[in-house]
Specification:
It is built from 16 helices and no strands. It is mainly alpha-helical. It comes from Alkalicoccobacillus plakortidis.
Length: 446
Amino acid sequence: MKTNNETITNPLDTQPIGRTFVKYLIPSLVGMLLMALNFVVDGIMVGNRLGPVALAGVGIAGPVYTIFVAMSLWIGIGGATLFSQAMGAKKPEKANFIFTQSLILIFSATLIIGLIAFFFREPLVYALGANEETYPYASAYLNVMLLFGFVFTIENATSVFVRNDRNPNLAMAALIVTAVSNVILNYIILYILNLGVAGAAYGTIISAALGILVLGLHFFRKNNQLKLVRFKLNRPLLLQAIMLGFPSFLAEVGISVFTISHNVTLERLAGTDGVAAFSVLNYVHGVMLLMFLGMGSAVQPLVSYYHGGRQNDRKVHTIKIALKTAAGAGLVFFLIGQIAAGPIVSIFGNFDDTVTSLATTGIRIFFFAYLFMGANFVMMTFYQSIGNVRMATWITFAREILFMLIILFTLPHFMGVNGVWLAIPIAELLVLTSIIFYVRRHRLTA
């Protein structure tokens, strides 16, 4: 147990804001970049080794992975926000109880949901957008994810708490180990052992387990504040965690809605070629999304801590730095899409002209979204971290579900496949406009 004096002299209370933000931002971005590259390499290996139909099948099963991550973030981010707020208020005993309760509930919930879904796996695969061609691949991948998905939910949630306990470098190291081991395992599984997409799914699970082992090193540190304590369900704290974490859950569910709705719409408009083209775009989008998630991972521990300690000036200064960083990153991502769309598509495999053309055009149009997405993501994290769940939920729901679905169900009737690619950019712009109106009517801390 740390002394009260050690708790009071937390470096977050005294270090310059810019330096502190960079200290959290760089490990988060490096870790997320490696995870993103790992995500892309998975796609490259599957696409080159097994072909575009297998790639489309894995993409169809992907939302299940996303749902499990959503469950871990729902309780994990909500619990970690309460943890940092309690630490900022100098209440370490409460913080440790929140940590213990969060991990137990995440493990239980994802294990139970995975087992239930496993018994309904066949209709589930078709509901996700599979057809006769893609079903075998989507089903093989899905079966593994449902049975063992609890492994990466524990890894994901533990990483969030370790980062909130002032150890972003170890959280980064765990992501590095997870990413590198996954690439190595998938190469062995796909190219040497020839075990197909089910083997690739097992590689993802094993690499997540290795990440958990790395994160376990945090509990041997002298300044570790994370401790497992005696567990007894505390309903008020659980409800607070669920409420605070709901925007993160909704964000991950939104990714699944995005993937499923685009798969279904493109399958209707362009068949398997359209789904394969979207799978390529979605892999690339995953890289950019993880970069913005890295920025949010840097913002959340700091803003939650400053909010708990009522350090409003440091809180506002942090979010202003994060917004400038997100704007710069979004511009860079947009330019990459305009300049290098063709080469990006080509690295996923030697596709026919139809798939290549659809994917290249899709990247160039879709990447307009990154001009607005970074600011939206940062502001959602900010409002979530200070407990303004209503605004955080609005940002997430509007950009990933409401506006996207309205546009997706209308614009393709007039513009065809290009209308599909435009759904997210227009949705992001509309949401950013709503945030600007809100900030002008309320204080930034409201």
